[in-house]
Amino acid sequence: MNKIFLWLIMLLAGLWKSMGADVGQLREILNVRLIMDDRSPFQVGRPKAQKKSGKMYSLLQMFIYGIIGFIYTFPLWFIQRDLLLGLTGYYTFFLFFLWFTLVISFSGMLIDNRDNLILLPRPINDRTLVLSRLLHIVIYLFRMVLPMSIPGWIILAYVKGWQAAVLFPVPVILLVFLTLFLVNAVYLLIIRLAGPSRFKDVLSTFQIIFSILLFGSYYLLPRLLDASAIQSLDITQLGWIRLLPSYWLAAMWTWIYQPEFTLPGTSFIGLLSILIPLIAIWGTVRFLAPRFMQALAGGEEVVRPAVPGSKNLKGSSRLYRQLSLLLNRRQEAQAGFELAWLQTARNRNYKMKVYPALAY
Q1: Rounded distance, CA 61 to CA 95, Å?
Q2: How deeply is 298 buried, as exposed, middle or buried, from its count of CB atoms within 10 A (0-12, 13-18, 19+)?
Q3: pLDDT tens digit sequence for 271-313
Q4: How far are the Cα atoms of 77, 106, 117, 180, 229 from residue 233, in angstroms, in the given order?
Q5: Which candidate, 185, 189, 197, 193, places its Cα nearest to that of 297?
Q6: pTM for this structure?
Q7: Tens digit of pLDDT for each residue in 314-346?
Q8: Which of 39, 146, 191, 359 is the most buried (most CB within 10 A)?
Q9: DSSP code of 7?
């Protein structure tokens, strides 16, 4: 599967070359990264019978994504009454899912600097390095989006015919690129405001806040919305919907269908779903790649030595020591509590996994 996706990505070699990337180096970096991803350390030394379970896990993962995609198809049942509204809702669910996945799961792939020791001493330019990271994530996103999109593909092909089946993959592909570069734009904005040295600290805080807001909206919005109000929605009364990227994608369908309800200029709005991803990837690779690589090089996680007499340190030490004495009677338990407190307070990965889970 990885070879197929790599081949598809390299069909656009002319585009990557026009952005300043070395196509040969880009292909080799992507190929090696995909090979390393498939070589899980847990499979080393296992019997062949146990190694086959990796394929079963991949199939199970695709099945789960297919179920998620089927759940997300419920807005498509609006397409008989309002084509644009149903498709906008469908793409909005996809957009939020990919946003959440990128922010929580794949940010580490984008800002991972462990391969810098190998790649930076080589004659590889910044544009090639940044583009290799972005396309690596694109391949992973397509592995998720492909099974998720199959239920919607089948429904639209059944309801709207073969024209819908032919057009359906185009907005989905653009959705992946659009989501990736919207998230990347946020990261570059963080670099701009916070600086390379504090990039990862600010990024982890942003990820935690975004996760809490997303989980909160997941619980609150269904309670605030009325089912009858949703069924009576009229897209012609929602002028602000033009600002949503999901509406740009839905607007592409007006090129082959003439929906009963539509907003003025919808056909031209569909062009934004093509232009924005192209402009975003070109601007990112062409102009912002050097600053991004500087942020990765300058954002190394450094353990700072304790400064005696610091007021903040004294206040913090009082808190965890008092909690340790309050919650534990034995000295061994107190020492374990203090050690766990200090380790988790400085571990970004722990915060990223635990804090959003508490919000959920």
Answers
A1: 20
A2: middle
A3: 888 888 788 777 767 666 666 666 655 544 434 444 444 444 4
A4: 14, 35, 55, 30, 6
A5: 197
A6: 0.71
A7: 445 577 778 888 877 788 888 888 888 877 777
A8: 191
A9: H
